[in-house]
Amino acid sequence: MNNLRVAIIGAGQVARTSHIKYYQDMDGVEVAAVCDINGKAAEDTAKDFGIPRWYSDVFLMLKEAEPDAVSICVPNKFHCDMTCTALEHGCHVLCEKPPAITVKEAEQMRDTAKRWGKVLTFGFHFRYAERIAFLKKQIENGELGAIYAGDVTWMRRRGIPGWGNFTDKELQGGGPLIDIGVHILDLAVYLMNYPLIDYVCATASDRIGKRGGTGFLGNWDKERFGVEDGLFGFIKFADGSSLNIRTSYAVNIGEKEKRTLCLYGDKKGLSVFPAELYGEEDGWQENRTYPFDELRDWHYDCVRHFVECCREEAVSLVTPDQAVYVQKLIAGLYRSAETGKPVVYGAGNVDLI
What is the share, in percent, of the chain residues with pLDDT greater than 70? Predict the structure, then answer.
């Protein structure tokens, strides 16, 4: 079998710490080129990782390096353009999360992949955790019964990134919701099997972020802080079930960081962090804990699975249709927080998100 030739678009932290090194650890995979609009960053990355070609022009890279697959590791604003360009050049694509900034962009990415018959998947790496496969199977086997509510949380006491573009709304599309909250939101709706959305409502804050300060991810500049520091929302589904979401870079809680995902069924409840089931046996309340390896890097599993999909050895775990669904929720939550009004999906106004 010929080596799978992979190119990297974007030479920043996620490319260097996750994508490049994991591709290079796999048999039969060659990182053929790296591209970044900052040519020096691309050149340095190529030298550091022994990549034979580096570019500052995506079109030239795709033409000369002729990759089979591409990882998109650029700011969110450029996800759609870079993904569609790579697909149109005959490449399979692994795009980092979130899918895009707007729903229309996510739909364009999905439609382009379908038109060219290529794999398109996204870097929701939490999906590849063993615990998620296990808990998904419990749900499919009816252990929870009917799921009627859930709570998802990813909040940091002072965890505003002090580097990169995380506080630039134009480049990123938002703050913690589209950065860290999207992971936990994606997991919840995946486990709930994507119920039809009725409406969403949300509030957002930027009070702590706009003060500037220091946290465990470095110093952040109040003058460059243009996103929410927290978003708190409620999602109502057409089947009567609901989901609460709380996500924040900076909120006054006791913990350094708090991450939870709980679903409530009429037979049992479920927690993801830690992996637990709560129910009754013979009239007695019972909790079951399932230990899973906390040290495993799920980024590796995400990249490995993408390679297997490119070789037609596996089917994508994160599909473009699922990505569009999550993007609709993100956009609706932001719109509600901005306008102070619920966004009602059943009213046909999803075009505005």
Answer: 97
